[in-house]
Design a protein that fits this description.
With 414 residues, this protein is α+β, with helices and mostly antiparallel strands. The chain has nine helices and 21 strands. The chain has helices at residues 78-86, 88-107, 149-158, 174-182, 195-207, 222-232, 244-258, 302-317, 391-406, and strands spanning 2-5, 15-21, 28-29, 34-39, 44-48, 53-58, 65-67, 71-76, 126-129, 135-138, 212-220, 265-266, 271-272, 279-281, 283-285, 288-290, 293-294, 331-335, 354-358, 362-368, 371-385. Strands 11, 14, 17, 18, 19, 20 and 21 form a seven-stranded mixed sheet that branches. The protein has a four-stranded antiparallel sheet with strand order 1-8-6-3. Strand 4 and strand 5 (44-48) form a beta hairpin. Helix 7 (244-258) packs across helix 8. It is elongated, with a radius of gyration of 28 Å.
Length: 414
Amino acid sequence: MSEFRLPDVGEGLTEAEIVTWRVAVGDEVKINDVLVDIETAKSIVELPSPYAGRVAELLVSEGQTVAVGTAIVRIGSASEDSASEDSAGEDASAEGAALESVKSVVEEPAPAKPPAVLVGYGPSERKRRTRTGRTQSVSASSVRVLAKPPVRKLAKDLGVDLASVSADGPVVTRTDVLRHREQPPTAATSRPVTGVRKATAAAMTASALIPQVTEWVTIDVTETMNLVDRLKVDRQFESVKVSATLIAAKAICLALARTPDLHARWAEDAIDFPQSVGLGIAAATERGLVVPVVPDADRLSLVELGRTIDELVATARAGKLQPAQMSGGTFTLTNVGVFGIDGGTPILPPGQSGILALGQVAKRPWVVGDDVVPRLVTTLAVSFDHRVADGEQASRFLRDVADLLEDPARAFTF
């Protein structure tokens, strides 16, 4: 019998939530078959089996958060399966009796005095396994509410505590959750802080300790948007989402080559300058804000950069980013313009010294020579670590990005 313990699937993982079991007790599994989906701080990860055999026991329930190193499943070997088959006949009658017991619990009205019920259902005391393999009592209040995984996900998305839902039967259904959601609240509710929100909160708290400054500039990006329109019909870019974000990403890479201070890293006794740009792209997903990283972004052509960004953002929104795809960032780009926002003061991701926010592109009156004409305008804002760079370096960098977006042909002069 082998125990599979929750591994550290990426940099410094300490805990993860069991999202969906892909196997059940009795299933045959081969090495590398997916056993379970877990949610780390930033992504949902599939865990493959390191063993072949039959699933003997699932030690952790869906929705439960456990520490790295916790045993989550037991898998028996083929020889153990063979031995267990010898006693199958003896267990058959007991299994039948158990099934009848289940029917009586579900189908018959509950008596005034609670009867003995199945583990995990009702108010009876049960045992749970600890990381050391011992068992300990669990009070009635911590007994897991019965509900299918889709219903659990719905409740989590709506911020509904399953324990507070009144169900028509022994299992909480989608209808029960929606009905509970529609009822007027009688008191303030709370939602557990887990996953992306927990990681974001920790990152922003750490970032608040960094002395950071924000500068901004409003510019005419009509020529950039004309370039976007031309590239959208260019055959080389037919599989790429061409947008102001892509052109801004390229402009950042070119500007960092001239002012590398904006993506250097503070190391207490030194300032480290990376050899290439690890460009973070802030992406809003259903699970929260995540920042996948384009490695060596400054070494990619515009087409390659666009394809890589598209793939990473799609993976992020599918909740399938791996920890390695969110590491190695040296500078971040966030586009708040997609939400119809003119600009803001972006906060530095921990470990980075610069982040640029791109505001919405909107038609506004603009002075060209002595005339006021309608032009496409946006606002750029850069926040930087004042330990690493001063206003001079930040201003040069921001001016370079602005110049490139006002006139993309300037790229030939960089």
